[in-house]
Amino acid sequence: MARIRLVVKGKPGVIPVQSFLTAVDSAFKVLADLEIAISHSPERMLTWLVTDLAMGSLAIEAQARSKRDVKNVGPEVAAEFVSGLRKVEVAGISPPYLSETGMRNAQRLLGIIGKVGATGLEVSNLKDTAILTAEAV
């Protein structure tokens, strides 16, 4: 089973809804890009289901469910999501599995940091966590 958690950091009441929606949309587009690269299949094999929403810290948690019993790439996709965004934060490099489109979506995700109340992002696969700041932008 694979889970991811995305938290938009910032002061409650200041972050626009559109910034949160941009973060969520961009994060799941990055996950889709990673899924295709890791599975070596153009067909999507994972369905992400919301398992938790939190107010105050603008957090969403989702669990991947594989559409196929044969191969579940969810745990690997979730791990690469966190480690890949950490590579962008720490080294300023593109993660190995991301396509150009995936990298644009990662940049869109990171682009909300430092704008209109969003001070950072926290991404986690519940085993590993990356804290993303304005330095990653």
Written account of the structure:
- It is built from three helices and five strands; from the N terminus they run βαββααββ.
- It has helices spanning about 15-40, 75-90, 100-110; strands at about 1-10, 45-55, 60-65, 120-125, 130.
- The chain is about 40% helix and about 25% strand.
- By secondary structure, the chain is α+β, with helices and mostly antiparallel strands.
- It has a five-stranded antiparallel sheet with strand order 2-3-1-4-5, with helices on one face.
- The mean pLDDT is about 90.
- A hairpin with a 4-residue loop joins strand 2 (about 45-55) and strand 3 (about 60-65).
Report the portion of residues in β strands. Answer: 25-35%
Query: How helical, in percent, are the residues?
Result: 25-40%
Q: Using DSSP, what is the number of strands?
A: 5
- N-to-C CA distance: 31 Å
Low-confidence stretches: none
Rg over C-alpha atoms, rounded to the nearest angstrom: 14 Å
In this structure, how is the largest beta sheet organized?
A: 5 strands, antiparallel
State the shape. globular
Query: What is the arithmetic mean of pLDDT?
Result: 89
